Structure formats: structure tokens, C-alpha cells
Amino acid sequence: MKILVTGASGNVGRYVIEELLSMGEQVVGAGQDIQKIKDIFKDTIDAVHFDFTNKGTFHQALENVDRVFLMRPPHLGKPEDLYPFIDAMKSHKIKLISFLSLMGVETNPIPPHHKIEKYIEAAGIPYAHIRPGFFMQNVSGVHSVEIREKNQVFVPAGNSKTSFIDAADIGLSTAILLHEPNKYRNTAHTITGPEALNYDQVAEILSKVTGRQITYAKPGYLKYRRHYIKDRGLEKGYVNVTVALYFMTRMGTAKEVTDDFVKLTGRHPRSFEEFARANVNSFI
Ligand SMILES: NC(=O)c1ccc[n+]([C@@H]2O[C@H](COP(=O)([O-])OP(=O)(O)OC[C@H]3O[C@@H](n4cnc5c(N)ncnc54)[C@H](OP(=O)(O)O)[C@@H]3O)[C@@H](O)[C@H]2O)c1
């Protein structure tokens, strides 16, 4: 039987697939843009057209599948957006859903992940929730523009700390859960990087790695929101969600450091400095 990976072309999905393939698993990569998936994985996996908002795509995606990596595309802000697909999985013999959740949602009902976890559990399908901290890829991705163009880290996180994790480490952890569904049945794993950094420390590491003076601009929420919507042209709904996440970060929800990654993988998670060196091209 195969493992369905939703968000196959996304930050985490692509690493989940790489790791599953190296474990000898058969994978179906799902997304709206099949060509994107084929371009990344060539013929090493099957690719299926899949849309959370179109029930007509569910049956084919679940054919010959007994485990699922489930992620919520960031622009689908309501937990209810994922419910029809979770309902559809009930009539297939699914041994494990590994849902890409978020650190701290077990006690924080605001992010959509909280309700999605509860909905999966209530559906009676075996689960292994993966609850990562903030991705290092946020810095090398959406926030790299200001780093390259203005030598500034431009996020409204105040003086808070974040235990950044590399999406590749999330991919490895998730693949381990899906590879041994009985062992990890009905479990949850909070995985983080090895240390919690504030954004002055992030800027310091980026300065060291790039050889340029990069500073933390420490904008307020309104300045950040205006810049990302007006100057960067990003979708309002997406920017609002990030404002809420940085608000929570300031409340201290992103700073916990756990050893779940070491327990799962037997390895140490990548540090932000190692990540920045390996991805220096994103910052120059
Ligand atoms: N960034 C963080 O720090 C962080 C931390 C913890 C948790 N998370 C959670 O991680 C998730 C995002 O994961 P990611 O960064 O790997 O995603 P991503 O890189 O933003 O990729 C989104 C994926 O979703 C697919 N997609 C978009 N719309 C879809 C639809 N309607 N139906 C089916 N697939 C669709 C896209 O492919 P197509 O365009 O081909 O469909 C793409 O593969 C979010 O739920 C976020 O809350 C993020």
C-alpha cells in the first residue's frame, strides 16, 4: 500500500517524500499542480490532482493508500476547510494520519490546527500529530526579501524567542511516524530546533554567515502588516494569520525547546547557524 503526501510540493511535504522514499515506501504526491510535483520528483512517485476544496478529487487520491501525511495549506484559514477530506478518509482503511500541526496547540485553541487535531481524533482514525516550532524556512523564504534588499529582519516579534526548526527535520520525523504506524498510533510529537533565539540573535547569525551587517528592524504589527500587504502585495488573509502568530510568539508560545526530535530520530536537529550557512544563497 502507498502513503499519500498532501502538500507534496510544499516546504515540509517534499522532505516527507524524500525520507519516505529512502525508507523504501511507495508514495503518492498530492496537490493542485501535478506538473510541479512531477518536476520535483520525476517518476520516483505517483502524482495525483487533489484539492481540499473539491470532494471530487478525494477518491482517486485515496486509492491504494493506507497512510496519509495531512497538511493545511496556509491560505485555508478555517479548520472546517479540512473536514470533508478527513470525513472521506473514514471510509478508507487508513492506518495512520500524520497531521502537520503547530507547537502548543494542545493548550491554545486559536490556531486552526487545534480544531483539526480534535476532528481527526473524533473521526476515530489512528493519528500521530506532528507539532513543530516555527520553520527556519520562514526566514530563508518569505522574510528573506528584506534581508537581501534592506539588510533587515522585518518581523513583529518584539523581544520574543523562537525555537526554529528546519523543515527537513520535520520531514524526517514525519516519515518515521508514517513508516511505523502501529508504534506511533495515537501519539503527538512537539519537535523544535536545538535552541530558542530572539531576532537580534537571528540577525547576528545572518551577519556572520553573509559577512554583511544585518539588523533586526523590530517593526510593530501595523507597520509589518502595511509593508507585507501594500509593498510586498501578499494576500491580506495570509498576512493577518502571520500577525496573529507573531502576537502569540510575543506571548512566549514559540520558545519551548523539546527533545522529541532526538527521541524520534536518534539525531540532533539542525541549528539555525548550520541552516543559514547551507542556505546562504537565500540571503545574498
Ligand atoms: N511556517 C511555519 O513556521 C509553521 C510552523 C508550524 C506549522 N506550520 C503549518 O504548516 C503548514 C504549511 O506547510 P508548508 O509550509 O509545508 O506548506 P507550503 O510550503 O505553503 O505549501 C502549501 C502546499 O499546499 C498545496 N495546496 C495549496 N492549496 C491547496 C488545495 N486547495 N488543495 C490541496 N493542496 C493545496 C500546495 O500545492 P499546490 O499549489 O500544487 O496545490 C503546496 O504544496 C500550515 O498549516 C502551517 O500552519 C507552519
- Sheet-strand content, in percent, reads 5-15%
Shape: globular
CATH superfamily of the domain at 2-135 and 165-193 and 255-270: NAD(P)-binding Rossmann-like Domain
What class would the helix/strand composition place it in? alpha/beta
C-alpha Rg (nearest Å): 19 Å
Describe the largest sheet.
5 strands, parallel
* Bound ions, cofactors and other small molecules, one mention each: NADP nicotinamide-adenine-dinucleotide phosphate
Spatial gap, N to C terminus:
44 Å
- Mean pLDDT over all positions: 97
Low-confidence stretches: none
State the CATH topology of the domain at 2-135 and 165-193 and 255-270.
Answer: Rossmann fold
What is the count of β-strands? 11
* Strand line-up of the largest beta sheet: 3-2-1-4-5
- What's the order of the H and E elements? EHEHEHEHEHEHHEEHEEHEHHHH
Please tally the helical runs, counting DSSP H or I stretches of 4 or more residues.
Answer: 13
What is the CATH architecture term of the domain at 2-135 and 165-193 and 255-270? 3-Layer(aba) Sandwich
CATH top level of the domain at 2-135 and 165-193 and 255-270? Answer: Alpha Beta
**Helicity, as a percent range:** 40-55%
Pfam families: NmrA
EC number: 1.6.5.2
GO molecular function, one term: NAD(P)H dehydrogenase (quinone) activity
Domain NmrA-like: 2-218
